[in-house]
Amino acid sequence: MAARPARRAALASALDYCKRPEHLRRTLRIALVVGLVLNAINEAAPILHGRLGPGTWVRVALNLLVPFVVSNFGLLSGRRRLSATTSRPESPEP
Known about the structure:
Layout: H1 3-18, H2 21-48, H3 54-87
Helix pairs in contact: 2-3
């Protein structure tokens, strides 16, 4: 049962890290650029022809949400890699 509080603490730490203003600026910018490109590729025809049903709006939102989530995973992956390399003891050089 001790794993649950540790998992919650890790999740809270990850969310706090992602919510930092300097990180949000970067991840939101990435999500906006990539999301707009994805929407231009995938949803241009329905938008240009005025066929904006609920399904189209869901896909437009997902085209923005997915790059945001992926960029945050990348941010957390970089943080994990950095902490792994800085916490590793130095090996003696030959």
